[in-house]
Amino acid sequence: MANDVRDLPASNDGLHRFLGGSPLAVAFRLALLSILVGVVLAAIGFDPWNIVNSIRLLFQRLWDLGFDAINGLWRYFLLGAVIVLPIWLLSRLFSAPRGR
User: Fold this and answer.
1) Which of 39, 76, 86, 95 shows its CA 20 to 30 Å from the CA of 47?
2) What b/e string do you get for 28-60 counting C-beta neighbours within 10 Å, with b at 16 or more?
């Protein structure tokens, strides 16, 4: 018992657990997700330098469309689903529990 060795966690184990992976991998995933979300927001017509005005214009356009707004929302939903669903599926596949 005197020679028992106990494994201590690494010094960055808390950071690794908090981020959900290594900092470089997390930074890469966040950069990729930011680009994808940026593409979707650009398709809607958002401007990164004037986001408040872009949101106001989006709601103004939806109001001006009247009942055609439902068609526009459906198109935005489909556009977002093209991005969100594959990311969700890949995240589920890569985070699936491994067999023991």
Assistant:
1) 86
2) eeeeeeeeeeeeebeebebeeeeeeeeeeebee
d(CA 21, CA 50): 33
Q: What is the largest CA-CA distance in the chain?
A: 79
* Residues in the chain, overall count: 100
Tens-level pLDDT at each residue, the chain (100 residues): 566 666 555 556 777 777 778 888 888 888 888 888 888 878 877 777 887 888 888 888 877 877 776 777 788 888 888 888 888 888 878 886 665 5
Q: Is the pTM value of this prediction over 0.85?
A: no
E-strand spans in the chain?
none
> Does the CA dihedral 48-49-52-54 come out positive or negative?
negative
Can you tell me the distance from the alpha carbon of 75 to that of 54, in angstroms, rounded to the nearest whole number? 18
